[in-house]
Amino acid sequence: MSYVAVKGGSAAIRAAHRLVRKRMRGDPDAPEITPRQICEQMHLGVDRVMAEASLYDVDLAARAMLQAQGDMIEAIFLLRAYRATLTRFLDSTPLAMDAMRVQRRISAAFKDLPGGQQLGQTYDYSHRLFGYFDRLETASEVESGKAEVPPEPMTSVMGLLEKEGLMEPAAACEPSAENTQQDITQHPLLFPASRAQRLQSLARGDEGFLLSMAYSTQRGYGQNHPFIAELRMGDVTVEITPPELGFSIGIGTITVTECQMINQFQAKSPEEAAFSRGYGLVFGHSERKAIAMALVDRALRAGELGEESLSPAQDEQFVLSHCDNVEATGFVEHLKLPHYVDFQSEIQTLRHLRKTAAKDGA
Amino acid sequence: MRFDETSANSTNLTSMRAHWISELAHAMFSDLADAVADAVAGVERWPEFTSINSPETGLIMVHGRMGGLGDPFPLGESTVTRCTVQDDQGYMGLAYVLGDSLAHAEIAAKLDALLQHPEWQSSLWDRIIVPLMILRTDREAQTKQENQNSRVQFFTMETMRS
């Protein structure tokens, strides 16, 4: 309908792409960045590209960031395009989150929790000042006796609440699954979506979009009064069971961030009253996105939990149809393509309208 | 963990094989290359390998669980490289390695075949798998130790809520 095919311009297009090539490198006297440097020093950017491309590959994500000259959505697009050329071999066993090698684990709901809190690498509690981290020595000052206490296992906070009957069971959330085609990369997303499809969409959704949606729920548009039960970042082993072996093997490690959100309790009777869950799980280290995802996940459960859906964040069709930044940029940026015929028809209609109006007025 | 021949019955062999396949997949590529140099020294006659599936990069869908323990959902994909080889005595070696490294998968597949030879199993386990395991656990222990320095005990002020 809208844009049309055009011919010509191939020399100009080549010249334009050469300009990209030149600008991509910048001043040849400046040292060139290597993908390795991106991996090491811009790893949070790499993590974001992997999460939103929905493809975990650190090296490819770093190369994509370089080729896209730091344009994250372009880098994500590159990775998605590459992904489309690869064969899907297998599905992994669901990640064993309780076996995560935890780097960071905090709770905003309980100060004392089994296994304790561990800050890990965080900007929290830091001043936002240039050079703030430069003056710190990387070698740690081990406070005497502190690291000696063998820590107890980091038991899930949600599990403890669940045991006490104060939290809806993890397995209880869900079905409304008339829609059993779960993987949205294999089957188009239909509404109403299952929670699995919602979580998959959110996990690859645009961080900025999810952040705004999550923020809107906090500001009153679909309020759900959240507390972070647990926020964890660490490494988990990916396991598969190849049919040619028939037993499970570990094939590598990925870093993920998980957010378990406690939300307002509700029930038909006081005896049944229990907190409700929101869940966020994201590739790489991305706390902002994991928290936002947990908030939006909870907001999107409005229907299932018998709440009125009045706000954008509770509208699954609105959220899920607009959270993918590759789809969004495709449609928004396609406006750059030639719409000559389309526009000619519009302009003719308007001219005709004006002419007719002038005649009628005369 | 030393290789124990008395326990090498079939169940144990399966779990040993799962273990060495995982260890080979988790190894840093440079460590693996060193391990192969070692293996060459430890094996009198390096067998001829036929490629059954040459190394190929593809995808796996990584699944999470809703709420950490609930039903699974697709989290996102990861690149994975697989390779299958057969040696001249019929042992099939297989590798699946996370990421995009054809060389890693090929070496891992060959080592998997070699490790199935009863006469080489225990020496290769000790010479290759054990050192790789030590390197990996050391890496993990270092990360763990560094992060444990940031363990925290928060105290709430009673006066704040009064």
UniProtKB/TrEMBL annotation, chain A:
<protein>
    <submittedName>
        <fullName>Carbon-phosphorus lyase complex subunit PhnI</fullName>
    </submittedName>
</protein>
<dbReference type="InterPro" id="IPR008773">
    <property type="entry name" value="PhnI"/>
</dbReference>
<dbReference type="GO" id="GO:0019634">
    <property type="term" value="P:organic phosphonate metabolic process"/>
</dbReference>
<dbReference type="GO" id="GO:0016829">
    <property type="term" value="F:lyase activity"/>
</dbReference>
<keyword id="KW-0456">Lyase</keyword>
<dbReference type="Pfam" id="PF05861">
    <property type="entry name" value="PhnI"/>
</dbReference>
UniProtKB/TrEMBL annotation, chain B:
<dbReference type="GO" id="GO:0016829">
    <property type="term" value="F:lyase activity"/>
</dbReference>
<dbReference type="GO" id="GO:0019634">
    <property type="term" value="P:organic phosphonate metabolic process"/>
</dbReference>
<dbReference type="InterPro" id="IPR009609">
    <property type="entry name" value="Phosphonate_metab_PhnG"/>
</dbReference>
<keyword id="KW-0456">Lyase</keyword>
<dbReference type="Pfam" id="PF06754">
    <property type="entry name" value="PhnG"/>
</dbReference>
<dbReference type="GO" id="GO:0015716">
    <property type="term" value="P:organic phosphonate transport"/>
</dbReference>
<protein>
    <submittedName>
        <fullName>Phosphonate C-P lyase system protein PhnG</fullName>
    </submittedName>
</protein>
